[in-house]
Amino acid sequence: MISANDENGNPVFTEDSMIEARSAEALPGVAMHHIWGADGRVLPRDGSQPSWHSHFPPADGWRFVLLTLQPGQAAAPIDAPTESQLEELEEAFPGLLTTVEPGTEGMHTSETVDLVVVVDGPITLELSDSQVKDLHTGDVIVQVGNVHRWVNRSSKPCVVAAVVVGTRFETSTAAAS
């Protein structure tokens, strides 16, 4: 559901519809609802869908998504996808493959801050340095541009909601004095 303003500035509900999940054969067990997003911070006040072009937002852009991951799956592309599978993946999740770390099973990095809530867990968050955290329904995490992947080791589908905010990170990891 979307609320916005009509031409007179009055608050109104502008849309109440179902959103189809995106999926791709080369990304088994993953379904993602792209609920809303924009590539910038200037938005139409009438509630119309802003323009956006890639899976992860550019600096000053954002996405609101629901990720559903099936049991026994990692959010990772298959090995050696066919050309048609790659095309389908790019159409469903534009630019996603460019964020995947070579030689890993779905580890990826984006220049974003991800505000995540586990809606229906458990789910495991793995970091590139072998740190692992099991998250459960209601848990929240703020990810600040680190290498990670999601894995469902449970026997039921899990769902996470995320607001993904595009940003630019400092070139140095040292805190400013």
Compose a concise summary of this entry.
This protein is mainly β. The protein has one helix spanning 83-92, and strands at residues 2-5, 11-15, 30-38, 62-69, 73-74, 112-120, 123-127, 132-135, 140-144, 148-152, 158-166.
Protein traits:
mainly beta, 177 residues, globular, 37% strand, four-stranded antiparallel beta sheet
Report what the structure shows:
By secondary structure, the protein is mainly beta. 6% of the residues lie in helices and 37% in strands. The chain is built from one helix and eleven strands, in the order E-E-E-E-E-H-E-E-E-E-E-E. It has one helix at 83-92, and strands at residues 2-5, 11-15, 30-38, 62-69, 73-74, 112-120, 123-127, 132-135, 140-144, 148-152, 158-166. A five-stranded antiparallel beta sheet has the order 3-4-11-6-9, with no helix packed on it. A hairpin with a 5-residue loop joins strand 1 (2-5) and strand 2. The chain starts with a strand and ends in an 11-residue tail after the last strand.
